[in-house]
Amino acid sequence: MLHLDETIAAIASAPGGAAEGIVRLSGPDVLRCVEQVFQPQGMDWRRLAAITWPTAVAGAIRLDDVHGLLPAELYLWPAGRSYTGGPVAELHTIGSPPLLEAVVRQCCRAGARLAEPGEFTLRAFLAGRIDLTQAEAVLGVIDSTDADDLDVALAQLAGGLAKPLDRRRDALLDLLGHLEAGVDFADEDLPLITPDELQGQLAAAIETAEALAQQILCRHRSGEATHVVLTGWPNVSKSSLFNALVRRAGALVSHEPGTTRDYLTAEIDMDGVRVQLIDTAGVETDVAGSDADVRRQAQEAAARETRHTRVRVFCLDATRPMTDAERSELTGPMSGERLVVLTKVDAAGPGERPPGAIATSSVTGEGIELLRRRIGEAVLASGTSGGAVAATAARCHESLGAAVDSLRRASRIVESRAGEELVAVEIRLALDELGQVAGRVYTDDVLDRIFTRFCIGK
């Protein structure tokens, strides 16, 4: 349990040496801690204690572990003017990791404690400085691996999701207040909202929620579906699994190794996520025979598709033990998300079952729907999703879908004239779901899942 009334400190700059490094502090005793560490130049502490605006002061840091003074600058933000909402200080000095660690130790001796991962951003969220989508965007900025990821995270941090969501929640709250006032004070001479006006506001709310849902589920700005590759050794029933997932006979199925000469693709919906499913040729380490050139080209095409995908479905035959090469594949390093699938479980023999593997049968249908859901979740967790970072997309797509469903039910109730009380119930349900997206409604478990993924100092 984190105590928000404590003063925290941590290194806030990137790991490794640099010309400049930062130690950040936040909490009610920031000034008292910094006063014991920092010696200002040309300003006394009484003036600093009275500041009401962000201030930068040149000076030096006193360290018990270092002889002499360490040149530094102090940046101070008073309560209400800072990122966390409380008093914040940053000590900018030489970016030597041992020196920065010594500064943190000195701050802790002065009364601070070491910050937990994500605690600065958690305080900003709890103080109402940012909402949960913006907190997740901070993590998205930290974890960005390319320019597209960074652009998406920065847009979300600037309110790309929060602003339209807040506007729509405010409009729905006003609408709910109007409806409930009409129900509670039916005998009073209050202006009534007409069915047409009610339908118009519900339609606008549905449009906004659907747009947000589409924004976080669309994998690329270009509208392309995310590539998901089925991979594994020959004759592990990848093509049968492909057909079962696609729900049509789109792949040629054979018991002869090497049947899939090229790769087959199909665009499908995986639990609300657009996916380009790809069935590749089975992995072969020794390609020989009269058709060796064709099979070698198929291997190269499969390797190319696997290399560029963020989600791989690695198939294992449940009717036989794993090979050494398959074990090596499971334990080796990889980028992106990987799902391990057991095929042919309807005819299972001496096969091994790695922990977490999804048992499937293309014959009986066992595990196919579970695999579809897991693929959708893996896609959302594999990177940025259009206008939302992955963490937000994975957390919010169900809430946005539920909000849209409630608003559509409210619209149908208005059409049937079943009563404004029922319309109000559905609007309240939609508001609860939208509140979960923004973080107006949350649990400690949700916050733990989000903020423990941060690094210390953020």
| CATH fold type of the largest domain | Rossmann fold
**Gap between N and C termini, in Å?**
18 Å
Range of helix content: 40-55%
Give the biggest sheet: 7 strands, mixed
Mean pLDDT: 80
CATH class of the largest domain: Alpha Beta
Alpha carbon gyration radius: 28 Å
List keywords for this structure.
single chain, 13 strands, 6-stranded mixed sheet, Four Helix Bundle (Hemerythrin (Met), subunit A), alpha/beta, Rossmann fold, Gyrase A, domain 2, 3 domains, 458 residues, flat, 7-stranded mixed sheet
Structural write-up:
The protein has 458 residues and is an alpha/beta fold. The chain has three domains: 8-115, 2-Layer Sandwich (Gyrase A, domain 2); 144-218 and 387-441, Four Helix Bundle (Hemerythrin (Met), subunit A) (Up-down Bundle), CATH 1.20.120.430; 226-381, P-loop containing nucleotide triphosphate hydrolases (Rossmann fold, 3-Layer(aba) Sandwich), CATH 3.40.50. The protein has helices spanning 30-35, 45-49, 97-109, 119-126, 132-143, 147-157, 162-184, 195-217, 238-246, 292-307, 324-331, 368-381, 390-416, 420-438, 444-451; strands at residues 8-11, 18-26, 38-40, 55-62, 69-77, 88-95, 113-114, 226-232, 264-270, 273-279, 311-317, 337-343, 358-359. The chain has a seven-stranded mixed β-sheet with strand order 3-4-5-6-2-1-7. Strands 9-10-8-11-12-13 form a six-stranded mixed β-sheet, sandwiched between helices. Helix 7 (162-184) runs antiparallel to helix 14 and helix 8 (195-217) packs antiparallel against helix 13 (390-416). It is flat.
